[in-house]
Amino acid sequence: MSEYEYGKVYHLGRYRYTRRSAEEETRERFSFENGDENGSRVIVVDESGKGHSLTVQGAIDMVPFNNSIMFKIYILPGIYREKVIVPASKPYISFIEDQDRASETVLSWNDKASNRYKDGSELGTYRTASVDIESAYFCASGRTIENTVVA
User: Fold this and answer.
1) This protein's superkingdom (predicted)?
2) In sequence order, what are the beta bridge partners of 106?
């Protein structure tokens, strides 16, 4: 499913995503009125630009600080080359995907211990995670997370 047409409903695993008009879609992106039957909010990540965010980190950044409801970040198949950080101030986040295509959803980054941090010090091994989860109540399953650094 590479193209989402306006006005059509797509079932993505257990979740429904409706492509509305550009005006409604823009309004929906910032209001998060696209909740599921459990009262959770759903943010769609699509690297081709047809979701709410192009990047996983962009979707995390859309979640309000200190939120008290579940945000399900539906990541469409693709290779997302980015460092992902879920800060402690953003609890109740889940990464979900189409279970039939889970192997096609890859979160990839390439930090190594000898890389330099912003202050000039070495990263060390604990700062090299491709996906860094600092928040409570996080959930993810059935995806590939890789560090592609060459030793």
Assistant:
1) Eukaryota
2) 79, 144
What are the domain boundaries of the chain? 9-147
d(CA 120, CA 140): 33
Q: Which helix (H) or strand (E) holds 71?
A: strand 71-75
pLDDT for residue 1 is more than 60: no
Query: 84, 57 in Cβ contact below 8 A?
Result: yes
Give the integer Cα–Cα distance in Å for 38 and 87: 24
Distance of CA 126 to the CA centre of its chain: 22
Confidence at residue 3, expressed as pLDDT on a 0 to 100 scale: 52
What average pLDDT does this structure show over 136-144? 87
**Angle at the Cα of 34 (from 14 to 94), degrees rounded to 5?**
55
Residue 126 has a pLDDT of 79
CA distance 69 to 149: 36
| Domain 9-147 superfamily per CATH | Single-stranded right-handed beta-helix, Pectin lyase-like (2.160.20.10)
